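Annotated sample (chain length 393).
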Amino acid sequence: MNRMLIFVLLFLVSLAAQADTYTLNADGSGDFATIQDAINGAANYDIIELTPGTYVGGGNTNVDFSGKSVTVCSQDADNRAVINGYGASRAFIFETDEDYDAVLRDLKFNDCRALDGGAILIDNAQPRISGCDFEYCHAEGNGGAIRCISSLVQISDCTFSNCYAELRGGCIFTGESTYLSITDCMFEDSRAELRGGALYISYSPTELIDCGFHGCESIQGGAVAVNNIAVLFVRCTMYDNTGQGAAIWSCNELGQPTLQSCTLVANSTTHNFGAIYLNGGADCTLLNTIIAGNTGKAIAIAPDGGSVDLICCDLWGNSNGDWIDDLSVQLGFDGNICEDPQFCDPDDFVFTINCASPCFTDPDCNQIGAWGVGCGDTASTPSTWSRIKVLYY
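Output written by the structure step:
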């Protein structure tokens, strides 16, 4: 076993040593004239670095990875290269069985547009996308920034702002046997006309860890719409989103969102709906989660909706009810409370809690919500990039 591990490590080191790095400039100078030329000319595991500037036009948009395992990245992560579609083109296409060594890193996507997947189209591929910014990307159908179908996709440390889909998934649309992992990402001020102001997740197991959603809007699922699949939210913050199910809308029997240590605050919906809305038999599980200060109910369940299980949750101050309807029997059991969470500065979207908060002082529940103590006598909360953005938006 040890010999095999040593062999694998030596093999990987050997591949890294053989990889070449190519440099491109926005004016067409450098090792290749365009990004597409560089991908066509590169071998697997090569790195294509883009110097600061704006990359436009043929060969720099609608770029097809063509099955290559290469990395396209900014040479300077603090001064990122910009891929600009000028409202007419998407940036990248992955549709030829690309594996997890197909990487986009530290790039900025601006004003990209396509029928589906305004900036990136992923179909039957496994790319990784990290450290990227998506701004003003537009889909005439689904997935304002990214559409994923039949793929395994990892997205981390990215920001999505002012993206738009004319149908579903203002930022990201997933469907048809995709597995999606999103970590340390921020979604803000994005919109979809029908469902999922930020994300539309359908038939695609998905995990979202340390993500923030702010100012997103759709008819159903102001931030996230879930259809017929289990989705895990861990330490996510959703605030100031708008729609039926202003934070999360879920439908159909297999639509099963699970929220663990999340904070849902100041989202807006009509009185018949809630921060979370379940219909079509959808179930929901909440653990150590705060739902506070939302317009509408904390959780609304349609007549054909499913069940909700809550453990160590605080539902408080929601305009049309907290522990109401079928939820009422769970208040006072399993650590569930209805008390002011004592956010440190909610007017400035700071959702850390006071050290005296009931969301911190219950020894059986430990911490409730996405954030730890941030004010009072003891204030110490570890952070990630997206969580810092939530605090200081």
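Annotation: Residues 2-18 form the longest helix (17 residues).
Annotation: The longest strand covers residues 274-279.
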